[in-house]
């Protein structure tokens, strides 16, 4: 008689648990099944254990070489004779009525493609409830796998139509299969506890956790994109893979589209709640971790803003991004102080390709910190700024010079007898970080962003910036404000680093972007471009560009 159910169980080095798993299937209350066991070239006694069984329902296949878990499942699928395929692992235990209950459910519900069940962990009393309804499973697959894979019971025709397991996802193909099933039709989890799941150190989820996470990330992104495509309004553009780098952003984008398409505040509220949850999580991280997460979310947040979704929370994300950026800059300058002191004392022979000072070169100030910073300014910063800006130190005698994003060591200090102004929103923070601004008494420091400069119109003769314009919070506003405070014949010099956006340097600049913002500068042109800038070398694909009208 042809079996109604084909149980497929791959085995690799499971001699410790195999007998329990096989016995739990052979002892089922439902009898019309075949158990296909695929030994994946085990190196322990797994095959010997299988050879002790004499049961006509047991079909044993043996791979000559190890091909992997999911290829072995596909091999079992190809020889399966049953109407249904029952998934089983060699380290788990099925309750005696598992097959009977799942078979009867699928027979009563011909529209269901596959069903899973609830489970308990071996050695533990608690259960881990899985969602029951198809709609809940579809939504939760946006986050991760919502099935206990070895509890799946699938129509054979459906599994074969899907091509079985996608073997590219070596350690996460079960998640991919669940997503493809969800996209194809109705899938459910039964409320019954039908499986005992074993957790141990040699299972795939333990041994290959990093690879599994990598594959799961790709699968999740693919599923999210397909779900968004199905619910997207025609007026909105489709997100790209880059927009979905952070998994929760993919969920948020999906719920935003659902809210818009269905005109339902319910879905939009879910998106907002997720966004607030992520924002709270980001705030709990270290500066380095915050930068990593916000970089992952950057493109997705831009997509949401571009398509007009949840703008209130986007404002909060932007504020958080600015806070992270500022914290990263302050942390950088704090570490710089220690480097300057070590360099000045000779404990750091070279700093940014500048050798430590000889006794004759050292400037002696009121204390060690002042001595170190002033010596560093003289031997490194001044020649660097003059080289980057391609001008002489006496170029702006008697001129009013604005240094945009001046930092704690303004680039304008390299100019003799000039009236120097430095604008930076973190001025007070630099002092708290250990940079006494009194070291530069000839500089008028303004604790303000370039977006709002507390100076009258047509004030400055010279506006300059060295590798700082990409740090600002809003470059468009900065450009308009600089136009306001610049004299009509203002001299303009900006040394700009073209690079991909990061948290401390969030602005991506290229020639067209720069000209669109600063086209009001008379005679502005690219004076030089290079991957080299004094002691710095830009990464591949990046460059330093000097914009000037001198």
UniProtKB/TrEMBL annotation:
All residue ranges annotated as the Methyltransferase type domain in the record: 402-493
CDD domains attached to this UniProt entry: AdoMet_MTases
Domain Glycosyltransferase 2-like positions: 6-134
One MF term in the entry's GO annotations: S-adenosylmethionine-dependent methyltransferase activity
Keywords noted in UniProt: Transferase
Pfam families: Glycos_transf_2, Methyltransf_11
Superkingdom as given in the UniProt entry: Bacteria
The name this protein goes by in its record: Glycosyltransferase
Annotated source species: Parabacteroides acidifaciens
């Amino acid at each position: 008689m042809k079996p109604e159910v084909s149980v497929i169980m791959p085995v690799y080095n499971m001699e410790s648990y195999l007998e329990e798993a096989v016995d739990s299937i052979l002892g089922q209350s439902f009898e019309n099944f075949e158990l296909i066991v695929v030994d994946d070239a085990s190196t322990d006694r797994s095959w010997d254990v299988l050879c002790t069984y004499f049961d006509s329902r047991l079909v044993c296949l043996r791979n000559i070489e190890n091909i992997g878990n999911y290829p072995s499942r596909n091999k079992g699928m190809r020889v399966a004779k049953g109407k249904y395929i029952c998934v089983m692992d060699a380290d788990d235990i099925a309750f005696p009525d598992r097959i009977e209950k799942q078979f009867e459910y699928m027979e009563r519900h011909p529209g269901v493609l596959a069903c899973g069940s609830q489970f308990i962990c071996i050695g533990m009393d608690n259960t881990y409830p899985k969602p029951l309804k198809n709609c809940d499973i579809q939504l939760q697959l946006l986050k991760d796998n919502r099935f206990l894979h070895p509890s799946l019971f699938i129509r054979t025709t459906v599994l074969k139509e899907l091509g079985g397991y996608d073997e590219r996802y070596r350690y996460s193909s079960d998640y991919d299969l669940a997503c493809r099933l969800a996209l194809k039709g109705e899938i459910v989890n039964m409320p019954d506890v039908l499986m005992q799941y074993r957790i141990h150190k040699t299972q795939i989820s333990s041994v290959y956790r990093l690879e599994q996470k990598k594959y799961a990330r790709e699968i999740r992104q693919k599923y999210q994109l397909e779900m968004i495509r199905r619910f997207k309004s025609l007026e909105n553009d489709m997100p790209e893979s880059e927009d979905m780098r952070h998994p929760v952003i993919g969920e948020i984008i999906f719920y935003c589209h659902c809210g818009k398409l269905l005109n339902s505040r319910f879905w939009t509220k879910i998106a907002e709640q997720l966004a607030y949850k992520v924002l709270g999580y980001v705030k709990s991280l270290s500066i380095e971790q915050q930068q990593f997460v916000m970089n992952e979310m950057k493109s997705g947040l831009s997509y949401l803003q571009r398509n007009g979704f949840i703008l209130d929370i986007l404002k909060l994300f932007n504020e958080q991004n600015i806070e992270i950026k500022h914290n990263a800059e302050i942390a950088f300058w704090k570490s710089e102080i220690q480097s300057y002191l070590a360099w000045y004392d000779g404990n750091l022979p070279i700093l940014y390709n500048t050798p430590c000072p000889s006794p004759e070169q050292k400037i002696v100030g009121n204390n060690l910190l002042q001595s170190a910073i002033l010596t560093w300014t003289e031997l490194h910063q001044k020649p660097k700024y003059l080289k980057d800006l391609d001008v002489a130190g006496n170029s702006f005698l008697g001129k009013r010079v604005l240094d945009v994003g001046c930092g704690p060591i303004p680039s304008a200090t390299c100019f003799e007898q000039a009236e120097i102004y430095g604008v930076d929103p973190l001025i007070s923070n630099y002092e708290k970080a250990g940079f006494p601004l009194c070291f530069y008494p000839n500089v008028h420091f303004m604790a303000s962003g370039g977006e709002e400069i507390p100076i009258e119109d047509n004030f400055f003769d010279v506006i300059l910036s060295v590798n700082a314009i990409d740090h600002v919070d809003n470059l468009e506003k900065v450009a308009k404000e600089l136009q306001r405070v610049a004299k009509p014949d203002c001299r303009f010099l900006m040394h700009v680093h073209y690079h991909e956006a990061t948290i401390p340097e969030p602005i991506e600049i290229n020639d067209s972007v720069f000209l669109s913002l600063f086209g009001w500068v008379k005679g502005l042109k690219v004076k030089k471009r290079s991957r080299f800038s004094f002691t710095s070398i830009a990464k591949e694909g990046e460059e330093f560009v000097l914009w000037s009208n001198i």
